[in-house]
Design goal:
Layout lengths: L6 H6 L3 E5 L2 E6 L3 H10 L2 E4 L4 E6 L3 H6 L14 E7 L5 E9 L4 E5 L4 H11 L6 E4 L4 E7 L3 H9 L11 E6 L2 E7 L8 E6 L3 H12 L5 E2 L2 H10 L34 H10 L4 E9 L8 E4 L2 E12 L4 E9 L8 E4 L4 E5 L5
Parallel strand pairs: 3-13
Antiparallel strand pairs: 1-2, 3-9, 4-7, 4-8, 5-6, 6-7, 9-12, 10-11, 11-12, 14-17, 14-19, 15-16, 15-18, 16-17, 18-19
Helix pairs in contact: 2-7, 5-6
């Protein structure tokens, strides 16, 4: 397991640790619900430096990647980010990524444990293009601020008023003496901002944000609380809710797909499914009440298997156990009652939960 660069700081803060994709993450700091409340009501700081970063350089970098992902790349403005999927010729997912277009390169922010697979997939199709792929996880790290007081914390840390960032927009800044990139991150919480930090400056930037956030109620946010926010928002995570047999449309990844960009690997499958107007199954929400169930648990309608659970959390916003899961298209109507393999009844719910 690859340890967190700031392991000792998290340990001092009372963190417990777990492994995700072969990398260490801070699971919690003793009270996941307090961390969750900070992200909802004030501000929370998550160390996402376990995520992996791929850099693409070369004159053909944009046109090459454009033909490899579901999202527009060539027309993406410099300084903008976009969420995309990489899929096989049969339409199954290889991984997802956030693509950040900078003046001299493209950066792909991917889930821990997936960079090697992404790099192999891209290199398979890299023949004559002027493009070079490099693992720069050791050079860059990601910190994530969430909560309505994010702008106040950033303003205090930067020494100037922070103008809110639009979704997927970026802005260069100097924080704790280091050049960082601020990226609008709307997936879990509309005020959120990601801070892309040179790994050598990670400790200084973390401490500066913690100090600036003290008067605003900032708490460090563990992976468990981040998962609560993610599931309540109905956002699937690759490796948990999406695997290498998932078709992006099944996981509701319409925001990752451009229908005007031209050819890319797997486009025909996406086009056929879109023209057909439905997928056989889709990711949806499930209300479990007080029933505790594990990911992978079957969902049934009568004697027929119609789906399975992928993520399960106890949602503070709904006051009950909730889940993400795949359900056959005939049973996606909110309020539809299904049974778990063990017998209890659960209900289909619209996403997001909160």
């Amino acid at each position: 397991m690859e340890p967190l660069s700031l392991h000792f700081l998290h340990e001092q803060a009372g963190a417990h640790f777990l492994e995700v994709g072969g990398r260490e993450v801070a699971a919690d700091y003793g009270d996941s619900e307090a961390e969750y409340r900070a992200a909802r009501a004030s501000v929370a700081l998550h160390d996402a430096s376990y995520r992996e970063t791929l850099r693409i350089t070369g004159e053909d970098r944009s046109s090459f990647l454009h033909g490899m992902v579901t999202q527009e790349v060539k027309a993406l403005p410099t300084g903008a980010a976009a969420y995309a999927a990489m899929i096989t010729a049969k339409g199954a997912m290889v991984a997802d990524a956030r693509i950040l277009k900078r003046e001299a390169d493209l950066l792909l922010d991917v889930e821990p444990g997936t960079l090697a697979k992404v790099k192999d997939f891209l290199e398979k199709y890299l023949i004559s293009e002027d493009a070079e792929l490099q693992d720069v996880t050791g050079e860059w790290a990601l910190l994530r601020l969430l909560g309505p007081r994010t702008a106040e914390v950033l303003g205090a840390a930067l020494g100037a008023a922070f103008e809110p960032l639009a979704a997927n927009a970026s802005r260069e800044a100097t924080l704790a003496g280091a050049g960082v990139l601020l990226v609008g991150q709307p997936a879990f919480e509309k005020h959120g901002v990601d801070v892309l930090v040179p790994r050598g400056a990670l400790e200084a930037v973390w401490k500066a944000l913690v100090q600036a956030g003290g008067v605003h109620g900032l708490k460090p946010l563990g992976f468990g609380a981040l998962e609560l926010l993610r599931v309540e928002a109905g956002v699937p995570r690759y490796g948990q809710d999406m695997v290498d047999t998932t078709i992006p449309l099944e996981a509701n990844l319409t925001q990752a797909i451009s229908y005007n960009k031209g050819c890319y690997i797997g486009q025909e499958v996406i086009a056929r499914a879109t023209f057909r107007g439905h997928m056989n199954r889709k990711l949806t929400g499930l209300l479990l009440g007080e029933v505790k169930a594990a990911p992978g648990t079957e969902l049934r309608k009568g004697e027929k298997k119609v789906g399975w659970l992928t993520s399960v959390v106890r949602s503070p916003a709904t006051g009950q156990q909730v889940a993400l899961g795949y359900v056959h298209r005939d049973h996606l109507e909110p309020g539809t009652e299904l049974t778990l393999a063990e017998g209890p009844t659960v209900k289909v719910a619209a996403l997001p939960f909160a």
